[in-house]
Fold:
Amino acid sequence: MKVELTVNGKDITADVEDRTLLVHFLRDVANLTATNIGCDTTSCGACTVLLDGESVKSCTVLAAQADGRSVTTLEGLASEDGTMHAVQRAFHEEHGLQCGYCTPGMVMAITSLLKENPSPTEAQVRQGIEGNICRCTGYHNIVRAALAAAEASK
Amino acid sequence: MIPPSFTYARATSVDEALALAAEHGEDAKYLAGGQSLLPLMKLRFAAPTVLIDLGRVAELSYIRDEGTYVAIGALTRHHDVAHSELLAADIPLLAATAEAVGDPQIRHRGTIGGSVAHADAAADLPATLLALDATFVVKGPDGTRSVPAAEFFKGIFETALEPGELLTEIQVPKPAKPSAWSFQKFNKRAIDFAMVGVAVQGGSVALINMGSTPLRATAVESALASGASIADAAQLAAEGTNAGADIHASKAYREHLARVLTRRALEEAAARA
Structure:
């Protein structure tokens, strides 16, 4: 079927199998590979992207379900001139990553969280990333990065 | 993992969804938020040949005050149930349960009707809706009917829904004392289904994952009604249940959890009231 998405502000149209998952559309059709596939079972959150501005797990959304809608991946966060988004900058400054595999999903989940709750408490941040697993167990600095990004965006 | 091949069909109204279901018969399945169905399809536990996507049936996404009850469209997302001011005031148990489902990403996609129609014995919302004596409105080729929660859940992934029927609305009576609620769930990771869970509203107690369907803890409810203490009543929580055993917990451990969580839930509900 024909699927038409706006990905990071750019229209992408492709004829794909009905069963194509959003994450495969992003990686294989749009060639945007920042979005990682981790568990592939809706558990780990590595594939988190924004669908119409809200975090979703792109391994558990059909490209067809997203047809006509707007998707933001990690590649779409920074400004045109390369200036990092507040959440990206905070991850950099607070050393919010170790191996980096969960990072794109963490950044997108936190971006969505801060949109809904611009001044979260530490507990709210921890609950807000309950759907994202960091197998380096680097949560401490990830939480610090989320709080720093909230502070920086004030 | 990739789901087995299927044909994708999109409905934009209830009538269109029913027509598509009639056209494609028993091989078709409705797709709401897809947060349970798509993972099952990826594991090849489910292989419908046609998926009828309800995601754009906007007429089924609402939360309405109907005086004595709140009417919730079947396609209302967990996120919207969790953040409803009406529910926070009048049925806080339901809002809190929706907030306990999965994780934020899942709550952005998953729907209350999808959770009810999917009928996973370990799901949160069916038990809470059972405790609240909700009624499910179902539309089919022969018209509309209402099914009380107590008669809706028939077994694991099995409900009173007939082929081609669509759950359209969930009607939840406003409890006399909204604040007398508690929702307890025991799991290993935040995103896991409950090993065991308990929903309490006043003197109503419903159990999650203590059998093939959500169950009312009737022995606990009767004991409370005859004046038993919370501690004594909670001891009866596993009576009449039929918990399974799996890699997460034995049957005996689940029964223990049911007693402990019921006591905690009743204590919390009493403290809030």
